[in-house]
Amino acid sequence: MTMTTTTKKTTNKKSPQEKAVKLPANPFIFEILDLVSTQRTKEKKIEVLKEYETDALKTIFIWNFDETVISMLPSGDVPFNKNEVPIGTDHTSLRREYKHLYNFVKGGNDTLSQIRRETMFIQILEGLHPREAELICLVKDKKLSDKYKITYDVVQKAYPDIQWGGRS
Fold first, then answer.
1. Under DSSP, is residue 37 helix (H, G, I), strand (E, B) or coil?
2. What is the pTM of this model?
3. Residue 105: helix, strand or coil by DSSP?
4. 29-65 per-position pLDDT tens digit
């Protein structure tokens, strides 16, 4: 009688979070932050941030993490109508709107009246995808880390070119 031997085949299964996820071209900022949040190590988070580096993303991080950036908007919930149309039809994005964010911080555009500043902010929110509007509301209150697993340390290592401090 001959004996046969079998070898157990092992596969290197990665968890869904660890699989190499590729975002579409020009992803929404919330998609990038979602992907970063699912990474288990600081190194992976930094790698994803570097891969999807944009000026819009850096601007969001500066407003959120730089203590010298002072929001000129009231803290708390913002009363606005969410843009509920399907993705790809009638949304703008933070990739386009980030250039206007200087209007909402101290020293950015001090000639605006408070009512005009708040009206402009609501108009931007109403044009954004609801998840990007939520994101920018978190950033104005410096609470991005409440929703996304991203720290100042990770951002600082991913973007060493950002100059922190001395902004207001």
1. helix
2. 0.83
3. strand
4. 999 999 999 999 999 999 999 999 999 999 999 999 9
